[in-house]
UniProtKB/TrEMBL annotation:
Superkingdom of the source species: Eukaryota
Residue ranges annotated for the Methionyl/Leucyl tRNA synthetase domain, each copy included: 34-171
Residue ranges of every copy of the Aminoacyl-tRNA synthetase class Ia domain listed in the record: 431-594, 632-668
Organism this protein belongs to: Rhizophagus clarus
EC class (word): ligase
GO molecular function, one term: ATP binding
The Methionyl/Valyl/Leucyl/Isoleucyl-tRNA synthetase anticodon-binding domain, residue ranges: 722-839
UniProt cross-references to InterPro entries, sorted A to Z: aa-tRNA-synth_I_CS (IPR001412), aa-tRNA-synth_Ia (IPR002300), Leu-tRNA-ligase (IPR002302), Leu_tRNA-synth_edit (IPR025709), M/V/L/I-tRNA-synth_anticd-bd (IPR013155), Methionyl/Leucyl_tRNA_Synth (IPR015413), Rossmann-like_a/b/a_fold (IPR014729), tRNAsynth_Ia_anticodon-bd (IPR009080)
Main location: cytoplasm
Record GO cellular component, one term: mitochondrial matrix
Name of the protein in its database record: leucine--tRNA ligase
Domain (Leucyl-tRNA synthetase editing): residue spans on this chain: 220-417
UniProt keyword Calcium present: no
EC id: 6.1.1.4
Length: 888
């Protein structure tokens, strides 16, 4: 019996695979299968999360290859972004050098975990042969009216003189880098008009029946469709205009609750909206609004405190209620946001929380005089002061609509409004246009030129790429670094050929990743981002594996790009009309690792502070106490990080992969435990024993004769177990991806084969067939062992790789269980009978187990056993009669 040198086997097959890659097989006439794992940011180190995603995608990829698909399983690098720029600022390395070195390191690590990526499709988003096409797509969006510039409020760090992303501002509104209080500034920024696609992005979520419901729900919420109505309130401004005439204008409000229109006590404007009405505002009011607008810049965008709801200014203006004709005061309110609806709301204190708070704080009306216009369907208001925000029945103060339900009232009120012209039904989305400008160096330059005569002019497609200058000094201060690269900045206007300047912003890195999966299918195309033919053939991605943290932005942006490009007719998907990028989405869970805590202080303990000589009973060295154990997200502060490379060197990549797949279902948290990798190693060794046993068979047959007619019962049972396992595993690898269950089925099959192994009764064909199937089915998960075992099993035959062998087929006949009737006696009296598989009839203990587990068995034996003991069990008539004899 030979032992296995796992690391040597891995090395051997990694080399062989490289050679095989150099002689690619003919892929013609094969069906395509596109399996994609989210590409990583090249930080320089694979972490366990990466190992988990790539193990999952690799397993699926290898399985599909065995099924004869033309598999696309590409890998690349999401290489633009802040960390490279920060490394440059902190350590003086150029982002290019930093990125290239990191990619190299990570690629080696990916090979070490035995992944089978299509390296000939590799792409790196910071290479100009990639970002040339990102810029090309920017221009396409621009030419179709989907890229535009407007002023936007951004987080501005006054010390570092730079724009910060929301995630870079802490909860108190300070910059993560400089610690300065972040200001809100208005800057001209580029946007993609994703809102044009709001409806299809929402509606088509219903098509995605292989996406997790949770992710779709998050997208629905993000898009945030709200149906309601717009009402026009006439404003009579008493301020006289230059011609000394009274002026009136319409103020439009958006409401999701048209049924509450009889409860309006005031209208409220956002500060921006109010400032746009400058001509109508008394100057003291105008200055108050300016001050409030300034004050609100102090709030970080996410702040949600009560004060935000209560700040208000009475404008002194009045509007006329479109139905009742009442006079309604107009306020400016801090809680009204300028970029939602019309930037104006009708205030209904009795039925909206924020309106209530605002009304009381600004003493718009006495609490007791607040109009309640909606009654709950059943009970009355329990207390007079309570606000009621749900649907109900319209009260008597609602004119002709009194007594209607909210639903009916909404229809009636909006219909009447449309007839008379003072309102109309509308739809609002929470989704905002996508701000893609970054005042950063390490990103794709926005291919636009600013000309003093012609304004904003796109760079002609023929002049792409606009390459990033490399002679740059990065300090992290002063806004866009590209502003200071004179010879790059100064350019010529493509229209008038006069001197002009380049746009100095770069694109959000989410733009790069919104279309990378399309470039993979045609990565060397020099004429277009991808060809029509290839895109039509290979899109969409069949399975996309990645972290749930991308449930909203990345996936939404990718869907937007796909819909845009589909509309441009740059491809026709095989599934006609399928303008979605990813058919199936698999979101893998996080990897957690064990932590030890001092039970007294709660402090996390370093590894060297814990005595692990008995792994089941760790001891805190300094106190002798048992530390508190829990599984947590890996982090430096918890001393529980696990380095994949060390793990692989210790246990081998195959065992590591198996552990990852076995320990938890793909989308759940995986609790990392070295002891269970050891368990996987033990299983591997047991499979190896089976493989060896066949190598030792005196006579070996390659053409297995599996004729059920000549099998005895034991063989039939083995054959049934094999077919059952194939059936289960095939479903798992095809669609459910519950690899943890797959491994347990294979372990069970191993147990069975081991239990019959050198049994002379067992004819070789079924046994050999079982071992071969076992090896094939474990190969996608443990690829180098699969190869090695297959080679041993096929000594003398010319075989390149197991991944060109076909996946085992199910023999449905083999799945049928033949049953016989077994009569059960208690103390010699016949009590009940039971159907049992004929194959186990001779296995006395197995038959007894089945009998006792059955309903009758529970009743006659298990309950009886409580006060009596079973003396013995007699098997007679070839096992068909079983007599349980109890003690008296
Ligand atoms: C009157 C009303 C009565 C409202 C009531 C609600 C309840 P969703 O569902 O998110 O679309 N609103 C409209 N525009 C706003 C803005 N720019 N800033 C802040 N709030 C705004 O929310 C729609 C509701 O939010 C609208 O319906 C409006 O208040 C408010 F019992 O109008 B409602
Ligand atoms: Zn010009």
């Amino acid at each position: 019996q030979k032992n296995l040198d796992l690391l040597a086997i891995e090395r051997k097959w990694r080399e062989k695979w490289k050679q095989l890659k150099n002689n690619p097989k003919n892929q013609e006439n094969k069906k395509k299968f596109y399996i994609l794992a989210m590409f990583p940011y090249p930080s320089g180190m694979l972490h366990m999360g990466h190992v988990r995603v790539y193990t999952i995608s690799d397993t699926i990829s290898r399985f599909r290859k065995m099924l004869g698909y033309e598999v696309i399983h590409p890998m690349g690098w999401d290489a633009f972004g802040l960390p490279a720029e920060n490394a440059a600022i902190e350590r003086g390395v150029h982002p290019v050098d930093w990125t290239v070195a990191n990619i190299k390191a990570m690629k080696t690590q990916m090979e070490k975990i035995l992944t089978d990526f299509d390296w000939d499709r590799e792409l790196t988003t910071c290479n100009s042969d990639y970002y040339k096409w990102t810029q090309f797509l920017f221009l396409k969006l621009y030419k179709n009216g989907l890229a535009y510039q407007k002023e936007a409020v951004v987080n501005w760090d006054p010390i570092d003189q730079t724009v910060l992303a929301n995630e870079q501002v802490d909860s108190e509104g300070h910059s993560w880098r400089s610690g300065a209080k972040v200001e809100l500034r208005k800057l001209k920024q580029w946007f993609f008009k994703i809102t044009d696609f709001a409806e299809p992005l929402l509606k088509d979520l219903d098509k995605l029946n292989k996406w997790p419901e949770r992710v779709k729900q998050m997208q629905r919420h993000w898009i945030g469709k709200s149906e309601g109505a717009e009402f026009d309130f006439t404003v009579n401004s008493n301020r006289e205009n230059k011609e000394n005439r009274e002026t009136t204008f319409l103020l439009k409000v958006f409401t999701s609750r048209p049924d509450t229109i009889f409860g309006v006590h005031y209208l409220a404007l956002s500060t921006d909206h109010a400032l746009s009405l400058k001509d109508f505002l008394p100057s003291d009011v105008y200055f108050k609004v300016l001050k409030l607008a300034e004050e609100m810049k102090q709030y970080p965008i996410e702040a949600n405190d009560k004060e935000k709801f209560t700040k208000g200014i009475n404008t002194g203006l009045y509007a006329t209620h479109p139905i009742t004709g009442e006079t309604i005061p107009i306020y400016v309110a801090s809680y009204v946001v300028s970029d939602y609806g019309t930037g104006a709301v009708m205030g209904v204190p009795a039925h909206d929380q924020r309106d209530w708070i605002f009304t009381i704080a600004n003493r718009i009306v006495d609490e007791k005089d607040i109009k309640r216009v909606i009654k709950p369907y059943s009970a009355k208001f329990s207390e007079e002061s309570e606000i009621y925000t749900s649907y109900g029945i319209l009260s008597s103060n609602c004119g002709q609509y009194a007594g209607l339900t909210s639903e009916n009232a909404i229809n009636a009120i909006v219909n009447d409004a449309e007839k008379r012209g003072y309102g109309r039904s509308t739809v609002q989305y929470r989704l905002r246009d996508w701000l893609i400008s970054r005042q950063r160096y390490w990103g794709a330059p926005i291919p636009m030129i600013h000309c003093p005569r012609c304004n904003v002019v796109p760079v002609p497609e023929s002049e792409l790429p606009v390459t990033l200058p490399t002679n740059i000094s990065l300090t992290g201060r002063g806004g866009s670094p590209l502003k200071y690269v004179e010879d790059w900045l100064n350019s010529k206007c493509p229209k008038c050929h006069g001197p002009a300047k380049r746009d100095t912003d770069t694109m959000d890195t989410f733009v790069d990743s919104s279309w990378y999966f399309m470039r993979y299918i045609d990565p060397t195309n020099t004429l277009l981002p991808f060809s029509y033919e290839k895109a039509s053939k290979y899109l969409p991605v069949d399975v996309y594996v990645g972290g749930v943290e991308h449930a909203i932005l990345h996936l939404l942006y990718s869907r937007f790009f796909t819909k845009f490009l589909y509309k441009l007719e740059t491809y026709e998907s095989i599934n006609e009309g399928y303008d979605e990028p990813f058919k199936q989405l698999v979101t893998q869970g996080m990897v957690h690792a064990k932590t030890f805590k001092d039970p007294l202080s709660g402090r996390f303990l370093k590894p060297e502070e814990v005595d692990l000589s008995d792994p089941n009973e760790p001891i805190q060295k300094s106190t002798g106490l048992a530390p508190e154990i829990s599984f947590e997200k890996m982090s430096k502060s918890k001393y529980n990080g696990i380095d994949p490379e060390i793990t692989i060197e210790k246990y081998g990549a195959d065992a590591t992969r198996l552990h990852i797949l076995y320990k938890a279902p793909v989308s759940e948290i995986l609790e990392w435990e070295d002891s269970s990798i050891v368990g996987m190693q033990r299983w591997i060794l047991r499979v190896w024993r089976l493989v060896e046993s066949i190598a030792n068979f005196p006579q070996r047959s390659d053409d297995l004769i599996l004729d059920m007619n000549i099998m005895n019962n034991e063989e039939k049972e083995t054959y049934r177990i094999i077919n059952f396992t194939i059936k289960e595993l095939t479903t798992i690898f095809y669609e459910t991806y519950s690899f943890n269950t797959a491994v347990s089925y294979l372990i069970k099959l191993t147990n069975h084969l081991t239990s019959i192994s050198p049994n002379v009764n067992m004819s070789q064909p079924v046994y050999m067939y079982g071992v071969k199937c076992l090896v094939k089915m474990m190969a996608p998960m443990a690829p180098s062992l699969g190869e090695e075992f297959w080679e041993v099993l096929n000594k003398g035959r010319k075989i390149q790789t197991i991944f060109e062998e076909s996946w085992p087929e199910i023999d449905n006949k083999g799945l049928i269980i033949e049953e016989v009737t077994c009569v059960v006696q208690i103390d010699g009296k016949m009590r009940f009978s039971l159907q049992v598989p004929s194959s186990i009839l001779k296995d006395n203990s197995m038959v007894e187990k089945l009998i006792r587990k059955s309903n009758n068995g529970q009743k006659w034996i298990e309950e009886n056993k409580i006060d009596k003991k079973i003396k013995r069990v007699i098997h007679a008539n070839g096992g068909k009669i079983v007599n349980f004899v109890f003690e008296n």
